[in-house]
Amino acid sequence: MTLKMEHIYKSYQDGDKEIEVLKDVSLEVARGEFVAIVGPSGAGKSTFLSIAGALLSPTSGEITIGDERLSSLSKKELADARLQKIGFIFQGANLIPYLNVRDQLLVISELAGEKSKTKKAAADELLEELGLGARKKNYPESLSGGEKQRVAIARALMNNPDVILADEPTASLDKERGHAVVQMIADEVKRKNKAAIMVTHDERVLDLVDRVIRIEDGRLYPV
């Protein structure tokens, strides 16, 4: 397994009251597997994804990516793991307005302390794969919504992470563009043998995933 979440609990203190957001959540996602998490607002989807991506720590439970248990890592090691082992695709593409398309990818490598000509070649190859080869010198303002999300997919794959996490990647797209973007994520998951989780409200794209899991009242239920 590439991603393993074991007996995850997450609670917050609200005055004298303790609010449980996640309750005994366990999930394993293998290489090459694309899993969708669906559920109503307030069910714990965002908290779940933040914990899977090491942005939040669970109150209790264990997360393992590859053969690395996240609870054993220092703060610096955890930050390195986020850069090198996890690729995030956010609800909005979150592109940096003053960087062109190719540089959006290269900045990820630079954050990880890697600068080389091979990284430029890797960025160009990813952009070609996703149909953006001719747009690599364009800036975000000149891209369509679908193109921006494709750049976000390429950026998430730039450091060859073990796990891809997508947070509502179709939220700002129409049906056709949304389906095309999720199809690209699915294709890349298979082509590059990644484990992937997508949180979504969009039932129109569920035919593209391997498994659908519902989250409700902080617990996971197979669909």
Write structural notes for this entry:
- The chain is of the alpha/beta class and 223 residues long.
- The protein is 33% helix and 28% strand.
- The protein contains 6 helices and 10 strands.
- It has helices spanning 45-52, 75-85, 101-111, 117-129, 145-157, 175-191, and strands spanning 3-14, 17-29, 34-38, 60-65, 68-69, 86-89, 163-167, 195-199, 211-216, 219-222.
- The strands form 2 sheets. A 6-stranded mixed beta sheet has the order 6-7-8-3-9-10. Strands 2-1-4-5 form a 4-stranded antiparallel beta sheet.
- Helix 3 crosses helix 4 (117-129), helix 3 runs parallel beside helix 5 and helix 5 (145-157) packs parallel to helix 6 (175-191).
- The two termini are 21 Å apart.
Radius of gyration: 17 Å
Number of helices: 6
Q: What's the average pLDDT? A: 91
Low-confidence stretches: none
Which secondary-structure class do the elements indicate? alpha/beta
The CATH architecture can be named as 3-Layer(aba) Sandwich
**CATH classification, class level:** Alpha Beta
Question: What is the H/E order?
Answer: EEEHEEHEHHHEHEEE
Adjacency order of strands in the biggest sheet: 6-7-8-3-9-10
Shape: globular
* N-end to C-end Cα span: 21 Å
Overall number of strands:
10
Number of domains: 1
Strand content: 25-35%
The main pleated sheet reads as:
6 strands, mixed
Kindly identify the CATH topology. Rossmann fold
Give helix % range. 25-40%
What name goes with the CATH superfamily? P-loop containing nucleotide triphosphate hydrolases
